[in-house]
Amino acid sequence: MTGIRALLPVALVLGVGLPTGAQNTAPAPSTGQAPSTTPAPAEPAYTVRGRDVERLQRTLRERSERLHTRLTGLLRSWAPDVLATLEPPPPGVYGYQILPRIIPDPPRKTGPRTPPQVVSYSWRWSETLLSNELQALSKLEQAVEAVVPAASSHDTLAAITTDYRRHMSSRRMIDADIDYNWLWQAAIAGQRPAFDAITATLEQARQQISRNEPLGADVVAAISRSNPPAYVSFRQTAPNQWLMTIPVSTDITDAGFVAQVKSGIEKHWNVQDGDRSFRLELSVSTVTPEVLYCGKDNAAPCRAPDRGAHIDLGAHAARFPANTIVITTGAASLRLVGGLVLSPHDVTPGTLAHEFGHLLGFPDAYFRGYRDLGPEGFATLEFVPDRDDIMSDSGTGRVLPRHYESLLRARGLIPGL
Prior knowledge:
Order of helices and strands: HHHEHHHHEEHEEHHEEEHEEH
Distance between the termini: 22 Å
Number of helices: 12
Radius of gyration: 24 Å
Helix content: 40-55%
């Protein structure tokens, strides 16, 4: 497993953007010269297949929104008390200052753990999700059309509204799955040698765990190390008690949302282990978009990007004060580009805490590889060896004492191993 220390961080792919295949592009201006006879390079299979899936995604979105309009009218007339529970369709776009919903962490599972398995994501799987949801939507559409407009339809409309909320939850999950595919299939296409090495390590780790063997020492070291930024400070407040303080900058002006992000991350990173305690305190400063882009005293004409604008994430993050962790918006799928860049998709406190761990220098403690599917693009493979570790699984994992021990050891504040 040579080179694993250098290759695992590549899986973060901080600088890889979404392909522009699904976006409208204007024709190139005429130059007055004869057109080139050089054939255009063949489009990658993953983008061709992705566009097929996006067409089905648009069909689902358009039918879903038409149903929302129809159902809203019926509720307004015959069940106005239910109307407030009819959530709007999720945004079909991403962009600057479009915020996600922060939803609760899933309940922790009890009982025997299922053995670690390789999970696969692909365009074929996205298509299956879309097809299944279109069938469920057809039943909803039929139920709405069967409603007799009258006061007696109140309970029927309430039940349909409950089913529509379930449909909205499925749509959000499908949209996130498709954006995930765009992100990682582009990453794999652009970094095949690195992903080849990680895929080989994934398979070796899978075989070791299936035989109940411990992971190799170099793999364990690679997924356990940390490298906290210099501006992260540590203070021992009492014997066996440590406080980690981190400055954070954000241009999100919704104070309630920022408070949710702050408390969610802090809660996950506050750890009690017997008589030992480790706490996180985020010191958040807000920079308004106008100040971020125009400065405090700039008299020249200037304006910040409009809400929903597609921005250069790297250039945007570079505008923030140095020596802080940045939390901002503008990504199609949650990204790490100069900081934590949020997308419109629902996010849990556990996911935020997991991404925050990356900003502290921790790599993913799982393996992300791939399989070449030819005209279907790629299958992205994930193997999670330890679901108790938040850097392995943001849903079931936790921040563990060993995470803080790694940070403190990197700073020389406790003895090394």
